[in-house]
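Design job #97: recover the sequence.
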């Protein structure tokens, strides 16, 4: 089956909300060569230009990077060509009378491997091209290919071929004693198992009537989620306030808001949109509680047209699970994740919730005291309540007043060029890699010229014989029409082709970091440094995949509740004093950051951490609640407003006041196939991330030996083996929750 690119998106609701950066201007930065150096046992050593010259031949990439010279017409004609070729290929495959590994499976693997780059390029451009016509053509191509893929994945004649081969395998000696199978055979067996399982999970082993029903359900679900996210992306709603009502919001932020004159009152009003750079500063800094209350609820109630799509999808999912023999949709979806079933997930979430409660109650007491003091100062009434619209405001006030963290000032020490060089250096040291930027105009090709950096990545295990790993792109700053969050897009997986030659992977990081202004270069905020480390974690996962079959390599190959763990683990480096110090270089003076500034920042890492975790648990438990219904009526009778708000108050311990809202209408995760009954995965993966960090890196974060083990055991194996077995091998024991609980301040 054709495998599509899916962005590995940073952040749940929550984490990225906490310190969301404000992205306003649009600036391209010139590409600057990334430092070239390599790690040996004595530590870091920079290559001088002459040394590079000497070794130049060793660093000629054995594979050219892809070309990006697409026109809108070509995008559509290529997409149609791929669909036609695929149709021909599958028709030929189903015509084979005696399908076998040799005449059926291996050609299928090769076909899938060979086509993934072209498909991903065509579908990726909608997110990043500078040209609207190209973005539109890419979106159209994506729709064509997605529909085609649903058809192919439900082709009964293809399933019959796989089914026969799968049954034959049961008599295969090597399959019955996998230890004797070569790595290549092992992968092929796993490929057959996986394809067969995918078909069964799509109901291909059921009657024609049921298969048709499933096809209809799948198409409707796909349509609903497409529409849901389109509505979300295109919403242009806002809430308006007077200047007085927005007291406390900084002048810079006030300048962002469009203004108009209210016809009835004649007052000037400021339009606050629900885009992060508008709504968050209001929730964080507007002094008037009524303003915050109105803004919070208006934001939560946006995109009301999504409600019917959401409810319809819940019903369809329940139906899908039922036809496929599961009591709930959650159990169907969890079957292929680490957690396996809903009982395990619920136990995990509820246990955490109970443990966090006493800690969160203490945090609220502190925040309430601040609220009380402020009320006295401002001569406002104090009612001894702590509402949901109070939280961002007092959390922010606490950070500012108590810890005195000046995020703007800190960012002056992190100009984007030197910081990224430094971050790559850390990656190189830990994982024994080497990044070399492609600056040769004849060899460089990107979708947005020099707005995008292109780098060749090498493995340096034998310094005299660098081993090419693949290509990575960095598209770091906002642009009109560009994807608005931070994500890693896998472009082409690593695989071995039909001539037994390794074909190298291509991957891209797409971010929206603060851009340069008229008087300052682009400076990275601390949360942007963390984001870069996070996304690069996914990117490296993609690059170092060592399996022969593309679909077993990279983040997309591991169970979805593990996918964030490698990236979450790397975030720890961005909270270490030494690493932050080494990355710093003031944009004017070149000075290192004063330690006191770093200390103030690091001290805030866990501030209000229990309340933050409980908010995540609210999302996770709501997601489980709506996906564990056991009959249709349950969904019809479900009071979603009560469920969403009631659960939030009960779990996050923050009061709703007299108003309830429909925040689920913009809960994008819940509409995705991967994150439905899967939001818990963020915290679940964090258990492993924290365990790996504390047991292997906390004492010596730059330890190359641990880094190489991590690279080769956790990342390079992708999804070919059980994740838990890899973890056991890397940790030298069963994974444990202990470090995670400790990190949350429990135990
Ligand atoms: Zn991620």
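Job complete. Output follows.
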């Amino acid at each position: 089956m054709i495998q599509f690119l899916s962005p590995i998106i940073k952040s749940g609701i929550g984490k990225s909300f906490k310190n969301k950066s404000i992205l306003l201007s649009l600036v391209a930065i010139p590409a600057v060569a990334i430092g070239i150096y390599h790690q040996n046992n004595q530590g870091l050593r920079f290559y001088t230009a002459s040394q590079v010259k000497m070794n130049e031949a060793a660093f000629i990439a054995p594979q050219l990077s892809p070309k990006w010279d697409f026109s809108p017409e070509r995008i559509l004609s290529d997409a149609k060509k791929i669909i036609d070729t695929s149709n021909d290929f599958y028709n030929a495959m189903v015509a084979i009378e005696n399908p076998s590994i040799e005449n059926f499976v291996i050609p299928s693997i090769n076909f899938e491997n060979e086509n993934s780059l072209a498909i991903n390029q065509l579908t990726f451009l909608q997110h990043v091209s500078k040209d609207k016509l190209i973005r539109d053509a890419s979106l159209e191509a994506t729709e064509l290919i997605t529909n085609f893929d649903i058809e192919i994945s439900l082709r009964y004649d293809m399933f019959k071929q796989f089914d026969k081969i799968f049954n034959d395998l049961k008599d295969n000696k090597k399959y019955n004693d996998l230890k004797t199978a070569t790595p290549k055979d092992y992968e092929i067996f796993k490929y057959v198992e996986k394809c067969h399982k995918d078909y069964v999970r799509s109901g291909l082993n059921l009657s024609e009537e049921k298969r048709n029903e499933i096809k209809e359900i799948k198409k409707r679900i796909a349509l609903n989620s497409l529409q849901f996210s389109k509505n979300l992306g295109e919403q242009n709603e806002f809430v308006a306030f007077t200047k007085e009502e927005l007291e406390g919001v900084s002048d810079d932020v006030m300048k962002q808001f469009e203004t108009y004159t209210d016809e009835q009152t004649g007052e000037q009003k400021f339009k606050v949109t629900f885009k992060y750079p508008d709504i968050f500063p209001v929730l964080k800094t507007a002094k008037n509680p009524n303003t915050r209350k109105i803004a919070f609820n208006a934001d939560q109630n946006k995109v009301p047209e999504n409600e019917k799509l959401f409810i319809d999808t819940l019903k369809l999912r329940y139906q899908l699970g039922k036809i496929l023999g599961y009591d709930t949709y959650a159990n169907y979806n969890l079957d292929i994740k680490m957690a396996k079933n809903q009982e395990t997930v619920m136990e995990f979430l509820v246990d955490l919730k109970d443990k966090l409660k006493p800690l969160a109650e203490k945090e609220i007491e502190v925040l309430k005291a601040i609220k009380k003091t402020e009320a006295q100062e401002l001569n406002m009434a104090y009612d001894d309540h702590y509402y949901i619209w109070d939280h961002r405001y007092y959390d922010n006030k606490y950070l500012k007043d108590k810890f005195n963290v000046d995020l703007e000032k800190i960012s002056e020490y992190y100009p984007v060029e030197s910081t990224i060089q430094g971050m790559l250096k850390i990656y190189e040291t830990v994982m024994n890699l080497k990044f070399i930027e492609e600056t040769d105009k004849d060899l460089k090709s990107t979708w947005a010229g020099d707005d995008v950096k292109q780098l060749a990545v090498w493995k340096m295990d034998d310094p005299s014989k660098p081993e090419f790993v693949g290509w990575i792109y960095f598209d770091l700053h906002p642009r009109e029409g560009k994807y608005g969050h931070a994500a890693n897009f896998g472009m082409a997986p690593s695989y071995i082709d039909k001539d037994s030659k390794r074909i190298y992977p291509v991957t891209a990081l797409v971010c929206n970091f603060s851009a340069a202004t008229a008087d300052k270069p682009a400076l990275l905020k601390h949360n942007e440094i963390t984001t870069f480390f996070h996304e690069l974690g996914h990117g490296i996962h993609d690059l170092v995949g060592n399996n022969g079959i593309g679909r077993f390599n990279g983040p997309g190959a591991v169970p979805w509740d593990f996918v964030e763990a490698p990236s979450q683990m790397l975030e720890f480096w961005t909270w270490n004093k030494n690493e932050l110090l080494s990355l710093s270089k003031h944009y004017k003076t070149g000075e290192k950051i004063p330690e006191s500034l770093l200390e103030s920042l690091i001290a805030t890492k866990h501030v209000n951490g229990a309340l933050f975790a409980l908010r995540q648990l609210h999302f996770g438990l709501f997601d489980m609640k709506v996906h564990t219904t056991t009959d249709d009526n349950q969904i019809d009778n479900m009071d979603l407003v009560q469920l969403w708000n009631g659960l939030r108050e009960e779990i996050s311990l923050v009061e709703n006041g007299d108003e309830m809202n429909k925040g689920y209408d913009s809960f994008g995760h819940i509409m995705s196939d991967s994150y439905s009954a899967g939001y818990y995965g963020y915290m679940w993966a964090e258990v492993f991330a924290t365990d790996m960090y504390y047991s292997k890196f906390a004492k010596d974060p730059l330890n190359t030996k641990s880094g190489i083990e991590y690279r080769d055991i956790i990342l390079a194996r992708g999804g070919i083996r059980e994740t838990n077995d890899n973890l056991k091998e890397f940790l030298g024991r069963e994974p444990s929750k202990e470090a995670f609980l400790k990190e949350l301040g429990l135990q």
